[in-house]
Design a protein that fits this description.
Blueprint lengths: L1 E7 L1 H4 L6 H12 L3 E8 L3 H12 L4 E5 L10 H8 L2 E2 L1 H11 L13 E4 L2 E6 L3 H11 L3 H8 L14
Helix pairs in contact: 2-6, 3-4, 5-6
Length: 164
């Protein structure tokens, strides 16, 4: 699985903050047998996020974003993602929020989403390294199957019942 990592951070893009969340995504991608083929940092600018997502989707089976999923006026990652994806997968965001609510009530403020463009899966994750680890752990089991189905390489999702 080819993985691209996109960090959305004004300070990160300006070189004023080290990208710890991106490092966590590299580590966790390896746990999924993923090969990181690209890693970028862009500021919280919708047009730049969209352009990066489109570019990275051409190179990867999975694009993981970190940052820009909250409520601040500069947080626009979900909007940029929705502008790029063809099919939204709300279950990813719902699952991450449900599990994160066990840790903090602030989880309900997350607007993270996921979806596909062509055969590429894009998943938005929070900006903090701890939250990235918690949230990606929740959806990791579904990622390979989602990519398999989106790329047209997978079979049907239904299980065959034995005939009696």
């Amino acid at each position: 699985m080819r993985v691209a990592i996109l960090t959305v951070s004004d300070k990160g893009a300006a070189g004023k903050r080290y990208d710890e969340s991106g490092d966590v995504l590299v580590e966790m991608s390896r746990q999924m047998n993923g090969e990181v083929v690209a890693r970028e940092i862009v500021p919280d600018e919708k047009d730049q996020i969209e352009a990066a997502l489109r570019r990275l989707a051409q190179k990867a089976d999975l694009v993981l974003t970190t940052g820009g999923t909250g409520l601040s006026p500069r947080d626009v990652t979900p909007e940029a993602t929705r502008a790029v994806i063809e099919k939204e997968l709300p279950g990813f965001g719902e699952a991450m929020r449900m599990e994160s609510l066990k840790v903090t009530p602030h989880a309900m403020l997350s607007r993270a989403t996921a979806g596909t463009v062509g055969g590429t899966l894009i998943v938005n994750l929070p900006g903090s390294p701890k939250a990235v680890r918690e949230c990606l752990s929740v959806v990791m089991p579904a990622i390979p199957h989602a990519i398999e189905i989106a790329s047209g390489k997978g079979g049907e999702c239904a299980r065959m019942e034995k005939k009696k």
